[in-house]
# Entry
Amino acid sequence: MPESVSNITAQMPRAKLAGLLLFFLGPAVAIYTLFSIYPLVATMALSTYTSDPSGGRHFVGLANFETLLGDALWSKPFWNAFSNNLIFFAVHMCVQNPIGIALAGLLSLPGLRLKGLYRTVMFLPTMLSVVIVGFSWNLILSPLWGVAAGALKAVGLGSLFAPWLGLESSALVTLALISVWQFVGIPMMLIYAALLNIPEELIDAARVDGLGHFRIFLHIKLPLVLPTISLVSVLTFVANFNAFDLIYSVKGALAGPNFATDILGTFFYRTFFGNQLQLGNPTMGSAVATVMFFIILVGLCLYLFLVQRRIRRYAF
Amino acid sequence: MRRTFKAAMGAELAALALLAGLASAQAGSLKIESWRNDDADIWNSKIIPAFNKHYPDIKIEFAPSAPKEYNAALNARLDGGTAGDLITCRPFDASLALYQKRQLDAVDGLKGMDNFSDVAKAAWQTDDGKTTFCVPIASVIAGFIYNKEAFAKVGVSEPKTLDEFHAVLEKFKKDGTYVPLVMGTADQWEAATMGFQNVGPDYWKGEVGRANLIAGKEKLTDPQYVAAFKEIASWAPYLGSGFQAQTYADSQNLFSLGKGAIYAAGSWDISTFRGQAKFAMGAFPPPQPAGTTDCYISDHTDIAMGVNAASKNKEDAKKFLEWLTTPEFATIYANSLPGFFPLAKTPVKVDDDVAATMVGWRQTCKSTIRNSYQILSRGTPNLENELWNVSAQVVNGKLTPDAAGKQLQDGLDKWYKPAK
# Structure
């Protein structure tokens, strides 16, 4: 029987072990520190300063946060962006992930032909640049030359068409659905991979017991992939609260109409980099970024303590 | 999943700064920072060669960034000490902040600065008007560009008053061939810049109203401002269907494809239309409200150039800036970029007929700059941002003109205290 790894490392001279650790972990730690930890800490540090017109910076402690959350001029747009972000997230949870699960379930059906083709086609939008996605959907939904109006008219639903991207009531949900269209491939692939891991014997046994495809999926496969589904939910949460690019490319930094599509990302961008005549305010922008970080952190902690620990995993 | 945009932004800025650093200028050469990447060709093939006829030894590199990221990239390079010698100046506070941080030098001593009027220099002066820190290059004029063929077909002529304007629009609507007025509200600034700031100056008497607003003698809730909002609110029935989702690029295409009759325009649109539109075009100034006699146009100072205080080659940079004040530069600039009008006092002959028409309005109407630009967009909430937002909402019919004025004034009152 080969010697186990822990024995090997235990017998190693300390210097050699340290060298080994440095060799394997060093690059990752260095890169992660340089590009993730350092910017994060620097951002938090910057958020405790304010700058004067001559360019000098002064330490102000938590004053930026008091302004951001306590002064209606800042807190109103902030909470508006936050609640829009929640809607954005809710649409992804209610539309993207169920569709992703359903597609994965269909793809994993035995005897399905052209599996590879479907998989590729459905994953394709994920690899497109957001700018291209924004531009294409802008054209598709355009009331002037979009195909959406014509397509609806062709099936007798022409009266349902509206300039969705321009209306306060529908712009945010429309953008969220465009984002769903783009990223639905990710939950699909992750869950599909998890479904493939389920042993054939389980499925066969169920079939022998007389279950059809749908009930097999509902009662056997779905409970077994729940850990992956919760992982997908957490990835969606993090990605949605960091989202920015689609809104910026379709609606610009002012996220109109009347800030109906403003999410934390665009709010941060305006604060940090400015917009037209609004000068960028790096210190206040850092405060916004820090609050965004804590929102995501709190969300992740809730998930870890309330969900992750209760999930049962099955080993095959 | 997605990269976070913060990391992407940071990396981009760092890369830009690094590139700029590697290409840092040696003596005898100058580098120009600009957001006009559309014009790179004209700078390289016309403007710089013309300058080199006088000063063959000075090598000039035109190094533009994308307009959207210019301010951020420029600030990063100035802070990092890698910015070019000549800085293209945005109007008002963006450049004023650079001067206050001692990153731009004063240019008052330059030969030829007396060639510019006070209004021309206002966008690049300290609040007291004593120091100028950029040499004015050009302004843009707002008005309406129209399709001459459409006007001939429907049998209407250029409207002089708002009543005539509405009659023309109504006629186009009845005819049904053309979208009567091309403007969208999806990008918001169109409604503010080509709507409110375009027809508004006639109501608030241009510079008079602008100065009164800054002095606190007028409020945005006053009848003249509400009336301007009422006017743009009345355009909604004449805009293209689904104008709420019509972007600026959509508007440009709609008009240059010949599907629109009248286009709420900025003069910078001329060069785009020249390249694409196949029909004859004309332009008319904002039609006048009933009972007014003087006309005013939005003749907005938009672009200037200053010298980087940290430049190693200020001697040559100043020679270039002095050349910018000459009629020779003004003539080349005005004719290579129709729609950007030189600010020097010496009149310049413009060949493009639409551009010549628009610059001709300077003779009959009084010029003014956009009233939200000087001083009033310094605080939070930012007046210009608010103006984009409420103008789009007014045109969309989501906000009444009175409520729009009130929202703007309330926002302004929160931070702005006029000097007594």
About this structure: Strands of chain A lie at 49-51, 57-59, 274-275, 278-279. Residues 182 and 268 of chain A are 23 Å apart (CA to CA).
